[in-house]
Amino acid sequence: MNEIVRGVTAADALLGAAEFEAAIRAVGAERYHDKHPFHKLLHGGKLSKGQVQAWALNRYCYQSAVPRKDAALMSRTLDRELRREWIHRIMDHDGIDDEHGGIERWLVLTDALGLDRDYVISMEGALPATRFAVEAYVRFVVEQPLTVAVASSLTELFAPAIHRERIAGMLENYPFVNDEVMAYFKRRLTQAPRDADFALEYIKANARTREEQEACINAVRFKCNVLWAQLDALHNAYVEPGLIPPGAFRPNA
User: Fold this and answer.
1) Which CATH architecture has domain 34-238?
2) Which of 68, 87, 137, 162 is exposed most, by the fewest CB atoms within 10 A?
3) Taking Cα atoms as reference points, which of 165, 167, 159, 162 lies closest to residue 183?
């Protein structure tokens, strides 16, 4: 009887660093939310002011959740260097000293759109699907292995392109938008690449099995789905068929 030699199959073999990164970037090429019809309408100047208000109001839910998920991630690690690096993400959004941070810059946007700031912060008018999607992301970061949780932030690899498109498109097409209103996106043009570079190198170094690598790739898919689901909800409520849930924001109401 011939001896059966058990080896490592191709499916089990660890991906090389370049191949691993390429697999992550392929997720963005396939399903990042820049491809969603709602964003094409937004950037192309095809939405009414009320529809832009609905987008900004709902997106605030996501913006306000980012520092919460980052604080949750930091609480899970004993790695001081990871905490030292990750903490600036919270400062970027919440602000520190005289730097007001990304959440305040987002509120400048909603202010300019004529939305009451207290109403925006309350999130009372947000779509139920928006709230569910955002909280699913926070729970994912709390519950998944640390390296996988870090990987879920890697949609930031794809963010600068959508920010550039948004800045140009909204400034060109909406008279109620100006440079000050676009300050959030302009700041993210430098912040997002810095954050993404660190997170990418971290998972390359710490995903030590093929199974972990695949889980990291799936984490990026999950995050893309979170972003896509939010736009699905906006499109369904405010574009077509226009089914706004009870209690949600109603333009011109």
Assistant:
1) Up-down Bundle (1.20)
2) 87
3) 167
